[in-house]
Design brief:
The chain has a domain at 24-98: Winged helix-like DNA-binding domain superfamily/Winged helix DNA-binding domain (Arc Repressor Mutant, subunit A, Orthogonal Bundle). Helices cover 62% and strands 17% of the residues. It has helices at 4-25, 32-41, 49-61, 85-109, and strands at 30-31, 65-72, 75-83. Strands 1-3-2 form a 3-stranded antiparallel β-sheet. A hairpin with a 2-residue loop joins strand 2 and strand 3. The longest helix has 25 residues, at 85-109. The protein is globular and about 55 Å long.
Length: 112
């Protein structure tokens, strides 16, 4: 049985996961599993690894990222994702919007 806290966490994360994924690959091309590890290492608890791949697909369809197959010494070629110029622009806008939302929420919750 899923708790209401877990459901709430999932809903909040769903609203910001695109931004977090894009921010995580903006400066360094990254493959999917490596991206999951980076997000987890930064304390972002994902509902499932698959959720990241859905975000990558959505960001690619929107023209915010591109992918390419890169040979790997450790096995088969890997799909590596990198941000487009449009992705860099939208991330800047998302970050400004996030700051405004976060500041508002912090103000509402202050003292509770």
């Amino acid at each position: 049985m899923v708790s209401s806290v877990e459901v709430h966490h999932s809903q909040i994360l769903k609203g910001v996961l695109d931004m977090c994924v894009l921010a995580s690959i903006i400066d360094e091309p990254t493959y999917g599993y490596e991206l999951v590890q980076k997000l987890n290492a930064k304390g972002l608890s994902l509902p499932s690894e698959g959720s990241v791949y859905l975000v990558l697909k959505r960001l690619k369809a929107a023209g915010r990222i591109e992918d390419e197959l890169v040979a790997s010494d450790a096995g088969p070629a890997r799909k590596v994702y990198h941000a487009t110029d449009a992705g860099r622009d939208v991330l800047a806008a998302w970050m400004a919007d996030w700051q405004a939302v976060r500041n508002g929420v912090d103000n509402v919750l202050a003292g509770h």
